[in-house]
Amino acid sequence: MNKIEVCLEIGPEGTSAFAPEYPGCWVFGRTPERALVKMETVIAEWFEWMERHGEHIPTDMKVFKVEVAEMMSVDYNPVEAGKPEPLFWREVEPVTRRDIARTIRLMTYSREDLLSLVSSLEDSCLNWLPPNKPRTIRKLFETHSS
Fold it and tell me: Measured by CB atoms within 10 angstroms of the end CB, which terminus of the chain is less buried, N or C?
């Protein structure tokens, strides 16, 4: 059975978990146990997502056990989004060009999925300008579609 290493950050308001070898696999739970259960689901969904984008995932990789590789107690809220760990986690080895290329490929898949989601939105939604924001969804699409 394949072992997938997961890192936990346990804080006063919950626990975040991420799988360093699977960029973007990041969850949070009220307890470490709940975060680990969620990780099993997220990793299985990640394999499916990769296959939808044409990536080959060997069958034996899909049978796995989540294993805690690192557990840290922290005094901040680890469930806040926007941290870099879900994309790059390298405390020993530096990030390589291959790591960056892989992450860009994964971000391209995410962008394709996002554009597909917004493609059916009505003009009123695409043209809505959020308060204190410089662009509408349509403008973001136009800016980054070239």
Answer: C
